[in-house]
């Protein structure tokens, strides 16, 4: 089928609608308006390239939505509005380049989400923070650029894993020296230059003046020749920044070990000094007593000499 047939003839109590493997390219805004009891909707393996903002607004009971393997390049921020019961969302194998802020704002019950196989290079952490109950996240097969734009989302992923969630491999495509590495294995210290860029560019929410990301890519449009361009500092491109391969954690460990060794050496030196002082004190005391005894021994010898002379004269 090329177009979705009229679904108004279906009973409003219908709970499962599976229409995969067709040739749908678009949907009308009221396509599912009467299916208020729908729990599962499968639109996978079609050619949908655009979805009306409120096409799912009447599906308050929907828990499972699959848009897998279509031709979607963008999603309207209000696309999921009204889906308060949604638990599983699959938008893998499309051409998405971004997840708009607000798309997942009211999806507090979402536990399973797949964004694998798209064209995502970076994600905004704020777009995913409402997902308090998320347990499974698929992000593989995307051309991730592991720079400052992905730093905050990396921290959010680590928090998700820490509380028991699952995230599949997020392999870096750029920069070249990180290609093929899972961003979760990249030490957070390698993103310290992002903080330095934030400070150098005036701080703020985005890290630079005007609130833009510190590593945002500059997009320049052609200007008329008469236009006067004022010189402004160019945004920092994280992919061109020099990474710091030295791990701060290892450096701290080295300092701690060196401190412990120095402490032990100092204790041994103090003990040796104390032993030397005690030994010197004992030797001094012994010498004093020895000197006191020498005069007494001399007097005893002097008293013995007259007696010997008297005995010899009598003889």
From TrEMBL:
It is a single-pass membrane protein. The keyword Nucleotidyltransferase does not apply. Its main location: membrane. Gene3D superfamilies: Ribonuclease Inhibitor (3.80.10.10). GO terms for biological process: potassium ion transmembrane transport. One of its GO terms (cellular component) is plasma membrane. The chain crosses the membrane at residues 251-284. The keyword Cell membrane applies. InterPro entries: Cys-rich_flank_reg_C, Leu-rich_rpt, Leu-rich_rpt_typical-subtyp, LRR_dom_sf. It holds the Pfam family LRR_8. This is LRRCT domain-containing protein.
């Amino acid at each position: 089928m090329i177009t979705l047939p009229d679904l108004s003839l279906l009973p409003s109590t219908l709970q499962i609608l599976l229409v995969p493997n067709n040739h749908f390219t678009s949907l009308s805004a009221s396509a599912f308006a009467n299916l208020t009891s729908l729990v599962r909707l499968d639109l996978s393996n079609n050619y949908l390239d655009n979805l009306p903002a409120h096409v799912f607004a009447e599906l308050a009971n929907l828990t499972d939505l699959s848009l897998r393997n279509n031709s979607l390049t963008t999603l309207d921020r209000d696309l999921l509005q009204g889906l308060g019961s949604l638990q599983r969302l699959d938008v893998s194998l499309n051409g998405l380049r971004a997840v708009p802020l607000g798309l997942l704002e009211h999806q507090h019950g979402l536990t399973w989400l797949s964004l694998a196989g798209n064209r995502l290079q970076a994600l905004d952490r704020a777009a995913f923070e409402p997902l308090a109950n998320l347990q499974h996240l698929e992000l593989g097969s995307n051309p991730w650029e592991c720079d400052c734009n992905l730093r905050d989302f990396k921290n959010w992923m680590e928090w998700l894993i820490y509380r028991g969630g699952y995230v599949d491999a997020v392999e870096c495509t750029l920069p070249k020296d990180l290609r093929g590495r899972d961003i979760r294995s990249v030490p957070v210290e390698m993103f310290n230059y992002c903080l330095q860029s934030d400070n150098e560019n005036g701080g703020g929410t985005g890290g630079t003046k005007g609130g833009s990301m510190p590593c945002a890519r500059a997009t320049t449009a052609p200007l008329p020749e008469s236009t006067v361009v004022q010189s402004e500092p160019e945004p920092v491109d994280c992919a061109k920044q020099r990474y710091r391969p030295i791990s701060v954690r290892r450096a701290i460990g080295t300092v701690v070990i060196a401190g412990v060794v120095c402490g032990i050496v100092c204790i041994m030196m103090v003990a040796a000094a104390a032993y030397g002082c005690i030994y010197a004190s004992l030797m001094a005391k012994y010498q004093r007593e020895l000197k006191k005894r020498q005069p007494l021994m001399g007097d005893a010898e002097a008293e013995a000499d007259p007696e010997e002379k008297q005995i010899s004269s009598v003889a």
